[in-house]
Design a protein that fits this description.
MreD_proteobac; mainly alpha; 7 helices; cell inner membrane; about 70% helix; membrane; transmembrane; disordered N terminus; cell shape; globular
Length: about 160
Amino acid sequence: MNRRSPRLWILPVSVLAALLLGLLPLPAQVQGLRPYWLALVVAYWVIEEPDRAGLGFAFIVGLVADLVFGALLGEQALRLVIMAFILQRFRAQLRFFPLSQQALAIGGLLLNDRVVSAALHLLLGQPQLPWTYWLAPLVGMLLWVPLFLVFEALRQARRLR
């Protein structure tokens, strides 16, 4: 039996969970605080499994997200590809940062994602998101450490079997 096959399910299940968390209805008061779950999941896989997750992975996941969320086709794909490109460029340094510094870097990437999203909305003449949406990168940054630790625990448990 192949030793790698038992943990192949973690990547697609994590993407599916991120898509479902993005669809979860929230009250209007906290809607803007929703972290970009998909970006967090893609970031983890690009950093930790570059052979399985790269620009193509980010593009396909973004297109699926555009279809699932009913967004402009290609918007999330573009946003995730930009993030994955930056992560690939600095992966060697980022992997060896302490988790707190990784969280700061992820927060910066999520903030960059908001800037790209705002620029796309402006370019296409769509209404801009409310100011509360600019707080979501902070929430994503705070969630990076627990998310990273959960994924690492799942991957380590599969390696031990």
